[in-house]
Amino acid sequence: MNKQVYTRVAALVLSIPFLVFSCQSPSEEKEPKRGLIAEKAMVVSARGEASRIGIEIMKKGGNAFDAMMATEMALAVTFPFAGNLGGGGFAVYRLANGEIGSIDYREKAPGAAHRDMYLDENGDVIPGLSTKGALASGVPGTIAGIFEAQAKFGKLEPKDILQPVIDLARNGFVVSTQQAGRLQSIREVVREVNGENTFYAKEWNAGDTIKNIALAETLERIASNGRDEFYKGETAKILVDHMQKMGGIITEEDLAAYEAAWREPIVFDYKELRVISMAPPSSGGVTIGQILKMVEPFDLKGMGHNSADYVQVLTEAMRRAYADRNYYLGDPDFVEIPISELLDDAYLSNRMESFDPEKATLSSDIAEGSVLFAESMETTHYSIMDEEGNALAVTTTLNGAYGSKVYLDELGFFMNNEMDDFSSKAGVPNMFGLIGAEANSIAPGKRMLSSMTPTLVERDGKLWMIVGTPGGSTIITAVAQTILNAYEFDMTMQEAVEAPRFHHQWLPDQILFEENTLDSTLVQILSAKNYLINEGRTPIIGSVDAIMVLPDGKLEGGADPRRENEAAGY
Question: Which residue positions does the secretion signal occupy (predicted)?
Fold first, then answer.
């Protein structure tokens, strides 16, 4: 079948200062652009209030893990788009002494869940059932995760950490222009799901102040009673009662049984870098490892940043890595995952043997690799470095924007729609277009596969970068490109974060470029090699929040202007 290459030239997206894809290397004479520079500690997140509260906690004697609890809950207040109590996430850490680890507080399928719960009598997926409404939610893990991490490594009392967040919820936060647009865009579906009188049914405009008293009261109970308030206390009872009245299947037993899990992170080398990323049920660490190791033999710097050759090589590595991701990866507590084989140098070299610099490889010709033994823009990431030298990369989500759109008015937060990250049916794409397989099928108590990729990078044995992003299926490729931008092309942290990005995920077989970043030469070269380029609008790919440790020990924050991210430090 003939395939047509589509391109779209659109008006400049205001307030997003993207560079343009070009076949030329960046000018050597250009003055480097830097983000916020701090002497001792830094937080970079999706909201200034959350970053500043994290810094406030560290100034009061807390460390990165105390700041994690404060920042995460402040995002739940000010960024309900993805910040949450009703969702989950992953955190990768590196202590000042070099010890590394990670915590998995991903949601779980309720006990009553089963593999065919979103299929009709003909075995077809019922549209919307896994994305909207109470049946779309997994058992939340956020409160368990932040309490588990803080209890093990933190220094302050949770009550003291949460008080500034409670004050923020009571006193309110100002709605930004971007946020007003998001709230207005989901207003009707929130009313449809929750009724006319639900909190976010109101029309919120830029400049309005939102005071979430219900959330403040929920956080006060949690501050007084600890994590068990959410999983076994009054909050748990309210949550279950509300969800079951709406047709959900989460029970008090499901909440009481939930535990966060400590995981060994994925660790691999890329040239002189040591990359530390999240293990399954995140697909991030394995997939980013495959991508970087497949492109490692190529002279990327010699090709030029975002040149046609560079785009092609990285695209072909992405294509092959995502084919493996979609087939082999799932919850390691339920399926055997051949991680060492998937990251084996010989295996990855073999995967790239079919690469032809003269033409595109068809995704129809790329299946999962043969080894011995088989997600969202609507996410948020934050990066933390404390003055002791402890580092955290944390990515958390409700999955879709405002999750399942179920809002618990009595508690003040949205519930997730993470059940969509399972394979509702093998071979059928989820809301991000990702194809799933048996390894990621639904089962009671199972964690769903994720693209979230919180990542730390060491250079010369020392911490060099903390990085992560929202972006659904584009998270992995955005993180990979940010690392390559800084390492291969000597960009500052801010430049590496702002540089234009592209994405390929095996299926659908097309390269996604950000709007207004393509030049005609690049299009002509890739088109001549039979690459399909996105026809539709792709305004942004990811929204990276990152920190770089500079040679003098100072910290540079990279706050992505694609969203209203902000760095704070001292």
Answer: 1-22
For residue 77, what are the CA distances in angstroms to 53, 104, 191, 379, 569? 12, 22, 20, 15, 21
- Euclidean distance between CA atoms 539 and 56, whole angstroms: 34
Two tokens at 204? Answer: 């919120």
Q: How far apart are CA 104 and CA 338, in angstroms?
A: 19
Evaluate the CA torsion angle 237, 238, 240, 245 in order and state its sign: positive
Distance, in Å, from the CA atom of 383 to the CA atom of 385, rounded to the nearest integer, reads 7
Report pLDDT for 368: 57
Burial 297-330 (b: 16+ CB within 10 A, else e): ebebeebbbbbbbbbbbbbbbbbbbbbbbbbbbb
Q: Active-site residues: which are they?
A: 379
Residue 537's pLDDT is 76
C-beta separation of 347 from 320 below 8 A:
no
Residue with tokens 């991680």: 339
What gap in Å lies between CA 535 and CA 508, rounded to an integer? 12
Give, as one character, the DSSP assignment of residue 279: P
- Please list, in sequence order, all residues whose beta carbon lies within 8 angstroms of the beta carbon of residue 19, skipping any fewer than 6 positions away: 498, 499, 500, 517
Taking a C-beta distance cutoff of 8 angstroms, is the pair 88, 105 a contact? yes
Distances (CA, A) of 160 to 48, 164, 225, 296, 398: 20, 8, 13, 46, 26
Distance (Å, whole) CA 82 – CA 139: 16
* pLDDT for position 508: 85
Among 234, 239, 197, which Cα is nearest to 413's?
Answer: 239
Mean of pLDDT over the chain: 91
Angle between helices 308-328 and 284-295 (to 10 degrees): 140
Cβ 170 vs Cβ 216: under 8 Å: yes
Low-confidence ranges of the chain (pLDDT < 70): 1-20, 22-29, 367-377, 426-437, 535
DSSP string for 59-79: HTT--HHHHHHHHHHHHHHH-
Q: How far apart are the first and last CA of the chain?
A: 58
In this structure, is the dihedral angle defined by the CA atoms of residues 465, 469, 472 and 473, taken in order, positive or negative? negative
pLDDT confidence of residue 432: 57
**CA geometry: angle at 385 spanning 99 and 477, to 5°?**
85
What is the C-alpha to C-alpha distance for residues 567 and 570, in angstroms, rounded to an integer? 10
Tens of pLDDT, residues 423-467: 877 666 666 555 556 788 899 999 999 999 999 999 999 999 999
The tens digit of pLDDT for each residue in 463-508 reads 999 999 998 889 999 999 999 999 999 999 999 999 999 999 988 8
| Cα of 550 vs its chain's centroid, Å | 25
Please report the pLDDT score of residue 367 as a whole number. 67
Q: Say what the pLDDT of residue 426 is.
A: 65
What does the alpha-carbon distance between residue 160 and residue 156 come to, in Å, rounded to a whole number? 7
Distance of CA 499 to the CA centre of its chain: 18
The residue among 509, 515, 514, 513 whose CA lies nearest residue 530 is 509
pTM recorded for the entire structure: 0.92
